[in-house]
Amino acid sequence: MKYIIILGDGMSDYPIEKLGGKTPLEAADIPNIDVLAKKGRCGLFRTVPDELPPGSEVANMAVLGYDVRKLYQGRGVLEAASMGVKLIPGDLAMRCNLICVQDGKIKNHSAGHISSEEAHELIDALNAEFANETMRFHKGVSYRHLFVLNGGRKEVGLTPPHDVPGTPFAEVMPVSLSAEAHETCSVLTSLIIRSQKILADHPVNKKRVAEGKDPANSIWFWSAGYKPEMKTLQELYGKTGAVISAVDLLYGIGIYAGMDVIHVEGATGLYTTNYEGKAKAAVEALKTHDLVYLHIEATDEAGHEGNADLKVKSLEYLDKRAVKYIVEETAKFDEPVAIAVTPDHATPCAVRTHTHDPVPFIIYRPGDEPDAVTEYNEKSAAAGSYGLIEGDMFIKALFGIK
């Protein structure tokens, strides 16, 4: 049997008054996903333990069956793997966002979704000013970048910027959590403050302001850690795999998991992404791999923006432009294909950040008896036959491992 996980990042939500008291999943027209719910079995998946942050790095590792309590080292190290940044002993890697600060408050975590071309100019300017033998910025995609500090200590409290829109940045600056981490904390704090002067005066940002766009006028550090020791999916489950995404984080997880990384032209991480191209790539990858992990980010970004209408639209695009094709094409395979649909975590529009809420999932395994669920949403899935699961129960259920 072949396997595909279709992951709609952050697509789970809370009831929204604007949607008539429905969640986006309840409000969206998603007939193809609903058919999978009817043919498969559903449940709720607690992807993130209470003691860990509900980030995509934790949740996606959990979806693949990894023990996140043992392996979690933050997001930066995963993105480092995706970017080809080789970490050596003592390297502390962390995410570095380009953010927009307005009137002393964090306006958004993405600098208005700055282009990669503009962002790379800014990262070059930061390296010209700050890089040395112990620290360097590494260019990523759009607002998502990497910072590596050799000799850094990870016992520093770092707040993800997408968790605190509208908050005065001075209230959520790095905090030392141990005496040994004071120096690391001081370095990070200084870099944030000094970056604001450099970035504000940069031609890229002056042009963005003149065009009415949000400037990328500050860096922001979060999710720091050291290189994790992960076994591959082949070692754990005897499966080959491929990952398709638009996000470095997911590619980093895939690399550590021994999966092939597949890039699709036009994959943006937004609702404008190339749904059709990603779906076609997933079907092609299934012909040569046991498992394909298709990650689509758009619903998460809509949740961070608090945009319920955009989240509904993104769900409908996922259904009609990706899931429909995958269902139709895999039905033509000589070998049966199991299809799972799940978020990694919830990103409710009301709070505009990730939460620890368990997420609804579908697992359709050809030949297995379906349960009584007839549509896919938070409420319906809660009544599914899988009940509430956690840990490696999801991936084992998909693979049929007892």
Q: How are the elements arranged and paired?
A:
Elements: E1 2-8, H1 24-27, H2 31-39, E2 41-46, H3 56-63, H4 68-71, H5 76-83, E3 91-102, E4 105-108, H6 116-130, E5 135-141, E6 144-150, E7 156-157, E8 175-176, H7 182-200, H8 203-210, E9 218-225, H9 233-237, E10 241-244, H10 248-256, E11 260-262, H11 275-286, E12 291-296, H12 298-305, H13 308-330, E13 337-342, E14 359-364, H14 378-382, E15 387-390, H15 393-399
Parallel strand pairs: 1-12, 1-13, 2-15, 10-11, 10-12
Antiparallel strand pairs: 2-14, 3-4, 3-6, 3-9, 5-6, 7-8, 13-14
Per DSSP E runs of 2 or more residues, the count of β-strands stands at 15
**Which parts are unreliable, with pLDDT below 50 for 5 consecutive residues or more?**
none
Architecture per CATH nomenclature, i.e. the level-2 architecture of the largest domain: 3-Layer(aba) Sandwich
Report strand %: 15-25%
Name the CATH homologous superfamily of the largest domain.
Alkaline Phosphatase, subunit A
CATH class of the largest domain: Alpha Beta
Average of pLDDT: 96
Class derived from helix and strand content: alpha/beta
Q: Any idea what the shape is?
A: globular
